[in-house]
């Protein structure tokens, strides 16, 4: 059964009381470069449906292809690790003439981060400064639903600790090494030691980089909803949701730090 696209795409313009899209994880557009599926549904059935997946992608200029043996494609990735790919409509005479866009050579965080600060739930407390490295809107919703004010700032924003009670560093794409400006700002807050800091995914890697750790690109990445994670203090195993291609090298931890989860 064609699970991809069978719910269709809901209203892009529907907003909640804080001005956040109700049905999407970002304000506008599609954040993938392309979509490859085995089968796509062109007759969605859901009470919120406004348009098909194909029509939505076409409207945003995002290419897609169906009728692909995605199991065979997955096997290639499993055997070779993360590899570059490209959608072509017909096989060229000279396959070696094809060029590939390597996203790891770009500053993906700068591309997807907001360009100027935005405030959500302005009268809320505590006041959270969220560095946007590729943030999902549900993270803002989690804060404001608990009464907090969120100041969403660009990835290279100059932080003023007098303007927030806690610092949140979001998830995001790409290599942590590229985000030198973000790391500099994190180091400034760490040095003062007065404000709590929380990093998720890329944000955690940037926090680790700020204390002197090294990161590395994983062959496959950790991607899934049920990945085991062991707590170093108790040995207790937690099932976690992860989607990242880089990891922190625990051997590079400074002497006064130790791993919490592995």
From TrEMBL:
Keyword Methyltransferase in record: no
Subunit structure: Heterodimer composed of 2 chains; the small (or glutamine) chain promotes the hydrolysis of glutamine to ammonia, which is used by the large (or ammonia) chain to synthesize carbamoyl phosphate.
Key words of the record: Glutamine amidotransferase
InterPro entries: Anth_synth/Amidotransfase (IPR050472), CarbamoylP_synth_ssu_N (IPR002474), CarbP_synth_ssu_N_sf (IPR036480), Class_I_gatase-like (IPR029062), CPSase_GATase1 (IPR035686), GATASE (IPR017926)
Record field: catalytic activity: hydrogencarbonate + L-glutamine + 2 ATP + H2O = carbamoyl phosphate + L-glutamate + 2 ADP + phosphate + 2 H(+); L-glutamine + H2O = L-glutamate + NH4(+)
Family: Belongs to the CarA family.
Pathway in which this enzyme or protein is active: Amino-acid biosynthesis; L-arginine biosynthesis; carbamoyl phosphate from bicarbonate: step 1/1
Enzyme Commission designation: 6.3.5.5
Matching PROSITE patterns: GATASE_TYPE_1
Pfam families: CPSase_sm_chain, GATase
Name recorded for this polypeptide: carbamoyl-phosphate synthase (glutamine-hydrolyzing)
Molecular functions (GO terms): carbamoyl-phosphate synthase (glutamine-hydrolyzing) activity
Gene coding for it: CAD
Domain annotation Carbamoyl-phosphate synthase small subunit N-terminal: ranges: 1-88
S-adenosyl-L-methionine found in the keyword field: no
SMART domains membership: CPSase_sm_chain (SM01097)
């Amino acid at each position: 059964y064609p699970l991809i696209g069978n719910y269709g795409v809901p209203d892009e313009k529907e907003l909640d009381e804080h001005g956040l899209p109700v049905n999407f994880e970002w304000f506008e557009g599609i954040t993938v470069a392309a979509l490859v599926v085995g089968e796509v549904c062109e007759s969605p059935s859901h009470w919120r449906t406004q348009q098909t997946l194909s029509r939505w992608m076409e409207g945003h200029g995002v290419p897609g292809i169906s009728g692909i043996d995605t199991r065979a494609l997955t096997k290639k990735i499993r055997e070779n690790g993360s590899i570059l790919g490209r959608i072509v409509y017909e096989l060229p005479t000279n396959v070696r003439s094809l060029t590939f866009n390597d996203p790891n050579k770009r500053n993906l965080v700068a591309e997807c981060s907001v360009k100027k600060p935005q405030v959500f739930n302005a009268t809320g407390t505590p006041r959270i400064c969220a560095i946007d490295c590729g943030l999902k809107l549900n993270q803002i919703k989690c804060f404001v639903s608990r009464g907090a004010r969120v100041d969403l700032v660009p990835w290279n924003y100059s932080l003023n600790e007098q303007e927030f009670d806690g610092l949140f560093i979001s998830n995001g794409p790409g290599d942590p090494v590229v985000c030198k400006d973000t790391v500099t700002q994190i180091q400034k807050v760490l040095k003062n030691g007065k404000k709590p800091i929380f990093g998720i995914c890329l944000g955690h890697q940037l926090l680790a980089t700020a204390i002197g750790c090294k990161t590395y690109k994983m062959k496959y990445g950790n991607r899934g909803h049920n990945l085991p994670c062991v707590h170093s203090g108790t040995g207790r195993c937690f099932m976690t949701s992860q989607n990242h291609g880089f990891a922190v090298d625990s051997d590079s931890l400074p002497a006064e730090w130790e791993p919490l989860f592995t």
